């Protein structure tokens, strides 16, 4: 594409609309406005034009605003009352301190546009200016009721700091690289943390580039409220019926719910099995309660290869035994653990309280073991007298359990 051709023929540029679907209503909640150009070879995307830094800022701003004007005009003419996602590169936005965009929006405001339906979608990864100034501009836009989304969110920690500061209404996460379950543990973990951050700062997650059922399922499971991508709907020149995918999304959602419930049931079933078995074993070992190290050695003879690590702590997290470790089906004590404290670990004290209140054991979520790096779970069990037994389940055992190994 020749940028000069675009600049000389701006009347051949026009908006495309890609719908964004909401998980709570299964309807279209808004459209991302995209730039297209009618070339001699057909319709082409203006994405590369907007990213091309060799093209002077003012031309790109002009084209951006031209397309936005057409989009808003069309939405007013057709009485469309959804949200609109307006893309702006942070460098371009700051080139005129956001003036031309705000003027344009205010002009449409007087024609009936509700500014609360505008989501300013900022790409700030390549921003070279002063972040404080960008931050102030964002705050200023927010005073008009304009919503803020941050585009292209990834695992980079500098960006997370900025996210926490801006607390955008929406975080847009690209699922393009999430093609299948295997080999994506790092990405899964980052997204899990991102969903925690979003919850803390009151942002909503939007997952984009959803092209496969797997990605939609993933988005649903990872706290995504908004979805966008070819698997749902391609961008087009026209607005669509809000309910266009209601039935499909409802059916998908029900599938995911069933899947998740089967998984939760399997986890619950395993927790109950471990509770029953541990009760039985501990009953048989009652006489050894005052020698905790020998208690876990005797216990290890009962538990087979379900577990690979056993130890006992008090209610404040101080370890009262050594670690008993299974290696190649032989159990052995590993010294140096007695007296260590684990109260700093996430959920530790909370779990002690839960065990006290229920007077029953707990099966943890799956997490990566500090020493082996394998995904494991821990079964913890109240022994009475402020003693708590911790039993780490072996990866191989968990992997063989139906519906558990994720
Ligand atoms: Ca975008």
From TrEMBL:
GO terms for molecular function: cyclic-guanylate-specific phosphodiesterase activity. Pfam families: EAL, YkuI_C. Residues 1-249 form the EAL domain. Gene3D superfamilies: 1.20.5.170, EAL domain (3.20.20.450), PAS domain (3.30.450.20). It comes from the Bacteria. CDD domains: EAL. PANTHER family: CYCLIC DI-GMP PHOSPHODIESTERASE PDEF, SIGNAL TRANSDUCTION PROTEIN CONTAINING A EAL DOMAIN. This is EAL domain-containing protein. The lineage of its organism: Bacteria, Bacillati, Bacillota, Bacilli, Bacillales.
């Amino acid at each position: 594409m020749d940028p000069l051709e675009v600049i000389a023929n701006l009347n051949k540029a026009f908006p495309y609309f890609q719908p964004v679907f909401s998980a709570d209503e299964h309807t279209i909640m808004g459209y991302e406005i995209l730039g297209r150009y009618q070339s001699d070879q057909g319709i082409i995307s203006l994405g590369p034009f907007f990213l091309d830094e060799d093209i002077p800022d003012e031309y790109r701003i002009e084209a951006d605003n031209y397309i936005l004007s057409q989009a808003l005009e069309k939405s007013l003419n057709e009485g469309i009352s959804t949200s609109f996602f307006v893309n702006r590169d942070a460098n371009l936005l700051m080139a005129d301190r956001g003036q031309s965009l705000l003027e344009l929006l205010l002009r449409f405001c007087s024609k009936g546009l509700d500014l609360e339906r505008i989501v300013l979608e900022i790409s700030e990864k390549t921003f070279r200016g002063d972040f404080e100034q960008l931050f102030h501009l964002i705050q200023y836009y927010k005073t008009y009721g304009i919503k803020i989304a941050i585009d292209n969110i990834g695992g980079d920690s500098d960006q997370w700091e900025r996210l926490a500061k801006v607390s955008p209404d929406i975080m847009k996460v690209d699922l393009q690289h999430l093609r299948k379950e295997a080999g994506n543990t790092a990405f899964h973990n980052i997204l899990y943390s991102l969903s925690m951050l979003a919850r803390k700062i009151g942002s909503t997650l939007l997952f984009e580039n959803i092209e496969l059922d797997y990605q939609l399922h993933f988005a649903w499971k990872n706290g995504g409220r908004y979805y966008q991508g070819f698997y749902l709907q391609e961008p087009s020149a026209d607005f669509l019926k809000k309910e266009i995918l209601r039935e499909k999304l409802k059916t998908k959602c029900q599938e995911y719910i069933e899947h998740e419930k089967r998984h939760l049931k399997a986890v619950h079933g395993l927790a109950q099995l471990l509770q029953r078995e541990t009760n039985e074993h501990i009953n048989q070992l009652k006489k050894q309660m005052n020698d905790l190290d020998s208690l876990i050695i005797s216990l290890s003879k009962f538990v087979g290869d379900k577990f690979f690590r056993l130890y006992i702590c008090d209610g404040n997290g101080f370890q009262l035994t050594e670690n008993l470790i299974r290696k190649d089906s032989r159990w052995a004590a590993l010294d140096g653990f007695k007296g260590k404290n684990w109260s700093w670990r996430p959920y530790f004290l909370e779990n002690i309280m839960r065990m006290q209140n229920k007077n029953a054991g707990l099966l943890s979520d799956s997490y990566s073991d500090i020493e082996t790096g394998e995904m494991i779970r821990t079964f913890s069990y109240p022994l009475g007298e402020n003693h708590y037994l911790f039993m780490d389940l072996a990866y191989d055992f968990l992997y063989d359990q139906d519906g558990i190994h994720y």
